[in-house]
Each structure stands twice: as structure tokens, then as C-alpha cells.
Amino acid sequence: MKQNIYDDPIFFEGYMNLRDSGRTYNDFLEQPAIRGELPNLKGKRVMDLGCGTGGLGKYCIEKGASSVVGVDISEKMISRALKENKDEKIMYVCSPIEDLSKQTESFDLIVSSLAFHYIKDYESVIQKLHTFLKPGGMLIYSIEHPIVTARKDMKNWWRNVDGERLHWALDHYRDEGRREQHWYVDGVIKYHRTIPTLINGLIGQGFVLEKMLEPLPTPDGMNQMPDLKNEERRPSFLIIKSRKNAEPL
Amino acid sequence: MKQNIYDDPIFFEGYMNLRDSGRTYNDFLEQPAIRGELPNLKGKRVMDLGCGTGGLGKYCIEKGASSVVGVDISEKMISRALKENKDEKIMYVCSPIEDLSKQTESFDLIVSSLAFHYIKDYESVIQKLHTFLKPGGMLIYSIEHPIVTARKDMKNWWRNVDGERLHWALDHYRDEGRREQHWYVDGVIKYHRTIPTLINGLIGQGFVLEKMLEPLPTPDGMNQMPDLKNEERRPSFLIIKSRKNAEPL
Q: Is the ipTM of this complex over 0.90?
């Protein structure tokens, strides 16, 4: 069964309050980085997986994309997207990523922001996305970093007697699979995978790796959220750029 | 200046005693893994960077390679290699990897076992290695894992009151560069680089990434060195396979 935690009312309220604050790791760290990695979007057909309220897809339209298909499992998210980022060039689809059917090569770019760690079967999704892309099309996604998702215990850092962070804890790295955590509600499920599993899974399905990125915060983010300086000590996210084959988009 | 710690007499004696024990992480973890990743070697020309006493190069000859050039900075190592693994098909060269000059495309395979973390300027070495390889030739190397080399403090794990390992400490990940440690002698210098630096450095110089691997110990190793089970909790090594272009060797 696919997780649809975003339709849990308590989770949704907590998450939306965070998001509406405009002061999140997404705002200052992950979104600037993934947007900075997008290719020239003029006239391109884009799919946005785990589109949430649609901000990234709308950005793609603003940058010249001819159309965007935004996919999200959560009805509440799609409903918000239709309010906040309605656009005649954007079609929203409420569906689990895993349930999309294979299709002819239609897209120039598939982008996915912090959704793949919710997916149980990575490889079959990658295989399917390969069928969605035109030759030369790109898949760009961000994910919680495997060195973050690895450890099963929630307490993932230690402080000294002065309250300073000593280090981050790493453990259970090779034990791939389900991780349960409390994030607004109990039972938020993520799936941990090693870096080779992520990368080799792409290559094995016919993608060429183009770039890996562990984003650093924007200067504005460093001012507004001083904790972001910890990204220099341990990266929270990993961004992976790959291409259906080696020809340019 | 290139580090030549292996010619330090105290280091060399300590290291050779360890090596001669036949019970090391190389024996049970890194060497089985990197050997398992080598392509068909029949008639191939191989370069072995940081060849040490020549065991890996000799293995390549046994697997059908037509010739091996073994390169090591340490005269003591080359001298041992000439005793232990002399072979008419192997030429040993005593030189820092960094000092090899660019040359015409000569090799089908460049292999390097646990040497690249001693190299200060990774990208210029990768650029040079690209000139050594025939089109379709492979570069396969192992390196201490960036999640191991990241932290500057020597103490990298915590135990509870029962002496059980709690977790590994991760820190300073984005702060690339020099790490000094005590290993038989003070002042052993290694260079920490992030995973994207390693991977993007290859791609940027014209290599295609084929596979990443975080090796697990052999069953025999698990019996003889029980600490190796910790590899399931945090990998010590990273093996990276890449190709000069996408055509098979």
C-alpha cells in the first residue's frame, strides 16, 4: 500500500503551517539547488512527481516549459495546487507515483522534489520513468540523503555539556528499507537506500548519470535559519541528475 | 610535495607486519570486491596505480592480461614487489601518480586500490588518466569512503557503558582537503573529498559512471575478523567503476 501521509489532517496542517512560514529547508536549500540544475525549459514537456502544491511545476512554466503534468498522491495537496498554482499549461493528477502506467516517450524532463524516499520500490519506478522520457530526456530528483535516512533511531546527534553539537550519528547504513519516524504524526514511513542502490538503479535502467549534488544553503537562508550552517557538517539532501541517453536535451 | 609515507621505516614495518598477517580489511573486504569488478582481462593492457607489493597486478596477469605497469611512489614497496611479484609481463615504475606524464591512449584498464585518498589534486590526476586510456577503457578504483574520511577528529565512534558501539560519528563532510592521522606514525596525510566531487570529477573529465559499490566482507572474513560485521553499519570503502566512453571494452 502506498503511503498517503499528506492526507492525514494533523500532518497536513502541521506541514502546511511549516510551508507557509516560507522558512524551511526546502525554501533555502533544496528548492534553490534543484531549480538551479534544471536545463533550458523553453518549449519542454515536464512531469513533476510528488508535486505537492505545485510550486516547482509553476516555476517550470515561468521558465518557458510548454506543459507540466503534476502528480501527487494527496488529494489535499492537489486541491491546494489547484488554488495556488492553477495554470492552463499545468495538468494535475492525483495518483501514487507507483500507479502511473508505462507510456510512450512523452516528456523532456521529469523532476521530483523530495518524494522518492517515500517510494518502496525504487527500481520499478525508475524503469517506468524511463518509458516516460523522450531519448535525451532528463530525470532530476532530490531525496533525503542516505547518510541521514540510514540510522533507525530518531536521535541522530549528540551535544556536549555546553549544548554544542558534537557530531551526527551514522548507523544501519546497509540495512535498506523502511524507516518509521514521527513528523507531526507517528508512523511517517520513509525508505532508506544506499547511494550505490540509487545510482546503480538508474544506470541499470538505461540512464546516464550526469551530476550528483549535495546542496548548500543560500546566503539568505544562512541569515534566516542559522542551523542551516550545519549543512557544511552533514548534508541533508542529495540531488541526482541523469539522462535517458547521452545526447543533449 | 607528494606524500611518501610508505618509505618511512617505522610505517613500512608496521604496515608490512599487518599485511603479512593476511588478516586485513584489504584481504577480506576491499580486494575481493575490486577483483570481482574487473572486466575480462584477456589480452588487455593494465596500469595499476599505487601498486604496493604488486599483488593486484599479478592477479591481472593470472587472469590473462597481456601486460601490467605497476606504479608506486615508495621504493620500499617497489623493491618488495620485485621480490614477491616479479613477472616478465609486469613493469614496475617508482613514481608518484601525480608525476606520470600525459601519454597516448595505451591502456585498456587502469586500476587503483586505496591510493587516491593520498592524492591532493584529484581532478588533474583523473584528467591525466583519461589520456592514458584507450577509448572504451575502464578506470576502476577504490578509496576510503568519504563518510569515513570526513571527520577531522580521530575518535570516530562511541560506545555505551557495556562497551557496545553506539554509532559512528559524521562531521565536517563539506570541508574537503587534508586530514592528518596517526597510523603507525604521526602525520599520515589523506585528502577528504565529497561523493559528488569524486563522481562529478570523473564525469567532467569524460568518464561515464558504470557502477558504485560499497563492499561487504567475504564470509571467510566475517569468521576471521568479527569486526567486519560493522561494514553493515557503516561502509569503510567505496569502489567506483567508470569508462572512457560508453563502448564496451
A: yes
